């Protein structure tokens, strides 16, 4: 039996796992996907790698700064010398100075693999989708799709809150479809309400590739690397030249993230092509004409992209041995943070990012479980 089973192998779950394993606990991490990293996601398209989730790594808190320094010295991260712009009212394109920004040459999912480096293969259970939990004889049974069951003394749920609420609300049934006696529902009911109160923005992400042997006029944008946040339009939230993150082995590859209303409109649609066309055409009009005519493109749907309504604490304790956390855990008082960047520069890092909250929540979860086991 495991000391702790962690559901979700994103930044939160892997941070928690790493801390607990280092403290000598017998941990396993299970994830419904085939890979690690969660929304630190990289898609392989032929010989290309494209980051279609987390856009870049920009730590604001001290804890994440030291992990960043570690990731830089391990060669997982490097600085991305990208030129940043904003589209403001009347579609004016303004260069901005966002401070040091890091990216992973092998793709953002490499961060997940790095965090899991001290876990053995049998501690990492990929393609394990947790569908229900049961508390039985002083331990947790995590029932997964396909009827596998993982048993642990403690359980940490490190997935987006709406998915955690669904997991806790699922009632197990037997072969005759009768409900099986599961955890006492009373302690979980208030927790389910708190999890349900958390909301996320959805997002549609277009990955678009262009010919290799052609000159592309980047117009007002830096041909060596650019990213644009669009505050003026209705369709695009952010677009970046993803191919500038790594050595050029292709023509330009763009990643375009939509604003939430466009994603909401298409979130359950079977055909996402019209949404992709809207995004490609809007950026062609505002930035460079050739954007409308990619050689190929793909579109991905994120139901839970970034947090809209958070839970105001760094974790949620459901029972002593059952806790939950993630980027949706944002404690109430947020002071401006002053510090140094991982590269050693002075930084006036005010805005904590989602990755800061995911990381801090992972640490808080590990601490809570260590205290519970003492
Ligand atoms: C398009 C996009 C752009 C972003 N850009 C930025 C940015 O620029 N800066 C920033 O700070 N943040 C950004 N973020 C957010 C950032 O990626 C997340 O805040 C962070 O990665 C969250 O980590 P997490 O571990 O809390 O959750 P996740 O990464 O979502 O990990 C949860 C894991 O749980 C797994 N899971 C879910 N349900 C189950 C289940 N039932 N059983 C088993 N496994 C399950 C999932 O497969 C996933 O791997 C972006 C996100 C998206 C989608």
Query: What number is the mean pLDDT?
Result: 91
- Enumerate how many helices there are, as a single number: 8
N-end to C-end Cα span? 18 Å
> Remind me, CATH topology of the largest domain?
FAD/NAD(P)-binding domain
pLDDT below 50 for ≥5 consecutive residues: which ranges?
335-350
User: What string gives the helices and strands in order?
Assistant: EHEEEHEEEEHEEEEHHEEEEHHEEEEEH
- Write out the distinct hetero groups bound to the structure: flavin-adenine dinucleotide
Compute the number of structural domains. 2
> What percent strand?
25-35%
Overall description:
- The strands form five sheets. Strands 1, 2, 9, 10, 11, 12, 18 and 19 form an eight-stranded mixed beta sheet that branches. The protein has a seven-stranded mixed beta sheet with strand order 7-6-14-15-16-13-17, covered by helices on one side.
- The chain contains eight helices and 21 strands.
- The protein has two domains: 2-53 and 112-198 and 312-373, FAD/NAD(P)-binding domain (3-Layer(bba) Sandwich); 62-110 and 200-306, Polyamine Oxidase, Chain A, domain 2, CATH 3.90.660.
- The protein is of the alpha+beta class and 374 residues long.
- Bound molecules: flavin-adenine dinucleotide (FAD).
- Flavin-adenine dinucleotide is lined by residues 7-13, 30-33, 38-40, 53-56, 129-130, 158-160, 163, 167, 203, 205, 257, 302, 305-306, 326-327, 353-355, 358.
């Amino acid at each position: 039996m495991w000391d702790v089973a962690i559901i979700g192998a994103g930044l939160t779950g892997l941070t928690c796992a790493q801390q607990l394993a280092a403290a000598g606990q017998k941990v396993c991490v299970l994830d419904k996907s085939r890979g690690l990293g969660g929304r630190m996601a990289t898609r392989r398209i032929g010989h290309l790698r494209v980051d279609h989730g987390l856009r870049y790594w920009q730590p604001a808190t001290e804890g994440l700064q030291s992990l960043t320094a570690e990731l830089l010295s391990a060669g997982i991260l490097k600085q991305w010398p990208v030129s940043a712009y904003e589209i403001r009212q009347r579609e004016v394109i303004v260069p901005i100075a966002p401070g040091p920004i890091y990216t992973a040459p092998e793709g953002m999912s490499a961060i997940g693999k790095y965090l899991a480096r001290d876990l053995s293969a049998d501690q990492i259970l990929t393609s394990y989708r947790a569908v229900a939990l049961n508390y039985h004889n002083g331990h947790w049974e995590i029932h997964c799709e396909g009827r596998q069951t993982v048993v642990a003394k403690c359980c940490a749920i490190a997935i987006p809150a709406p998915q955690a609420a669904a997991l806790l609300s699922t009632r197990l049934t037997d072969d005759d479809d009768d409900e099986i006696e599961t955890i006492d529902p009373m302690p979980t009911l208030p927790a389910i309400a708190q999890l349900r109160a958390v909301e996320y923005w959805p997002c549609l992400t277009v990955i678009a590739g262009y010919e290799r042997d052609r000159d592309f006029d980047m117009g007002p944008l830096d041909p060596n690397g650019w990213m644009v946040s669009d505050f003026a339009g209705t369709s695009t939230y952010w677009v970046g030249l993803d191919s500038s993150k790594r050595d050029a082995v292709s023509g330009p590859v763009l990643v375009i993230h939509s604003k939430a209303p466009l994603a909401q409109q298409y979130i359950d649609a079977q055909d996402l092509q019209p949404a992709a066309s809207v995004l490609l055409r809007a950026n062609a009009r505002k930035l460079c004409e050739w954007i409308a005519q990619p050689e190929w493109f793909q579109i991905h749907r994120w139901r839970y992209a970034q947090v809209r309504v958070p839970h105001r604490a760094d974790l949620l304790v459901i029972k002593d041995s059952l806790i939950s956390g993630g980027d949706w855990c944002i404690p109430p008082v947020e002071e401006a943070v002053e510090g140094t960047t991982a590269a050693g520069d002075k930084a006036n890092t005010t805005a904590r990012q989602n990755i800061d909250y995911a990381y801090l929540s992972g640490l808080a979860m590990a601490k809570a479980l260590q205290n519970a086991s003492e």
